[in-house]
Amino acid sequence: MQKRVFYFIIFSMLGLAIFINLFLIFSIESVLKDELFSRLKSYANGIKDEVISSIQNSYYVNLKYQDYRISLIDEKGRVIYDNLSDNLPIHSDRIEIKNAMKNGESKSIRYSNTLLKRHLYYAVKIPTNKGEFILRIAKEQEYLYAIFMSFIPYILGEIIAVLIFSFLLAKYLTHIILRPIYNIDLKNLDEDLPYPELKILIETLKKQNKIIKSQFKNLKQKRQELQSLTKGMKDGLIIINRSGEILSINPSAQKYFVNLAKHTSISEIQNDLFLKLLLHNLRDFKDGKITSEIREQIVFMQETLVECEVVLSPIFSQKGKFKGLIIVICDITEFKRNQNLSKEFSANVTHELKTPLTSIMGNAEMIKNNLVKSDDLPHFIDTIYDESKRLLGLIEDILKLSFLDESSTKNIPFAKIELKNMVLKIYSNLKNIAKKYDIEFEFELEEGYIHGSKELLEYAIYNLCDNAIKYNNPGGYVKIKIRNLQDCVELSIKDSGIGIDKADQDHIFERFYCADKSYSKKVGGTGLGLSIVKSILAIHHAKLKLNSQKDIGSEFIITFDKI
């Protein structure tokens, strides 16, 4: 605003000065023309008698003056005398001649084809005894230009002076005019105004100020809501403008980058692969080559490799102009791992089901084709029975795993359970098996109440106790302990069995994993028991800990939330 006022004053004064000078120039020119015509008329009247005498005597020597051009023209337009040129054509068509013949005198300004210059002409009619003649006096217009040229230095000096004065005056007036406006307190618009003309503007500012405050309050509230929503998001969220400046970033996104925060540029991202992907697509969005969201998969290096899906969703204005990007980073490592586990599980299921079925079919086919001796028939029947039983157990375990994978605590009925009674019930079902393997049970049981599914927990504890018997040494023991702690109930199942090698301890809960396949086959293991146990405990939010040493024994410690 200050510049506009400043330049307006300068150019206004300069324009006024130029207008005044042009007006003066045209005024002076008009005055000079009138003055020159007056002098031409006076000169013509002064030599009129001499001209009449020369016409009557046909002697024109005395008329040869050098200051003016003098011409005599008769009634027919013939030039009988001209002091600057001879043998002139007929002048009856000259405007000053025609008007002088008609009105007695005339004046004009026109270009002379004879002298090739612009002239001022004064013509007057002179009656003599030889007829009527026209006396024409002329002067070159350059005479006026010479006078004008003498004024140019003064005009230039005046314009320079006006420029300097305008600059100083504009600077002073700008300061005087705008200082009260600059001193207006926008926070307190009810104060006395420096100019009454600003009242409407101030009222408008008050209204706009209220609207802006309300909008700012709403934006701040929405921003807080957005931050609250994005703060709890598991997926990373980054919002950038079209220039690449980060407008918002949630904590989940910050873990993928180093020192990346709000108001920083994407060029500071320390991940070449992600930065290259982002810059390339940002350029295409700006150029209008891409208008829909893009999904790409990328690997981030953290403590371990994290595979993520990056979704780039463009933001457009109502007019379709690209404004920025919403970037969502989804961790799909677990999803990919589950996909691989699912594929591996399917392959293992096929293999594990195929093995007993092959044995059953093989033995049955031999019996069908009478290839088995009557003495060997019981052995083949026992094999078919054992493999069928193993196949049935495998199918039951697979169905149970499938049920657990698709279930949650919402559709599984939970109830109050007393662990001590449950353990004793499980022992009564395992007594005969323990006797068969020559295993002694020891108990240190306190009363402990938990919340859960009785059927599932019985299966999990039964499975752990059954493993403790079958993977034990003859004459060994299984010790079960229940401790009622301050915040939890702890169940411990410890055996004196073959133990688990340290390298296998991280894998024993994987499906179809067997640390010792030959021993598992011997005791009838399917490789799914511990995986089912892990899934059941996960549903109950229980923690499972394993302590084991090869050839010494294993201890499974389960911690339940107390009710």
TrEMBL record:
Against Pfam families, the record matches this protein to: HATPase_c, HisKA, PAS_9
- Where, if anywhere, are coiled coils annotated? 202-229
Q: Which domain of life is it from?
A: Bacteria
Tell me which InterPro entries the record gives. BphY/WalK/GraS-like, HATPase_C_sf, HATPase_dom, His_kinase_dom, HisK_dim/P_dom, HisK_dim/P_sf, PAS, PAS-assoc_C
In what residue span(s) does the Histidine kinase domain sit? 348-563
- Gene3D superfamilies named in the record: 1.10.287.130, Histidine kinase-like ATPase, C-terminal domain (3.30.565.10), PAS domain (3.30.450.20)
**Which cellular component, as a GO term, is one annotated location?**
plasma membrane
Q: Name one GO molecular function term.
A: phosphorelay sensor kinase activity
Residue ranges spanning the membrane: these are: 6-32, 143-170
Q: Please write the reaction equations for the catalytic activity of this protein.
A: ATP + protein L-histidine = ADP + protein N-phospho-L-histidine
SMART domains (UniProt xref) = HATPase_c, HisKA
- What is a biological process (GO) this protein takes part in? cellular response to phosphate starvation
**Keywords (A to Z) from UniProt:** Coiled coil, Kinase, Membrane, Phosphoprotein, Transferase, Transmembrane, Transmembrane helix, Two-component regulatory system
Q: What is its EC number?
A: 2.7.13.3
Any idea where the PAC domain is? 292-344
Query: Which PANTHER family does this chain map to?
Result: PHOSPHATE REGULON SENSOR PROTEIN PHOR
Q: What is this protein called?
A: histidine kinase
Give the source species: Campylobacter porcelli
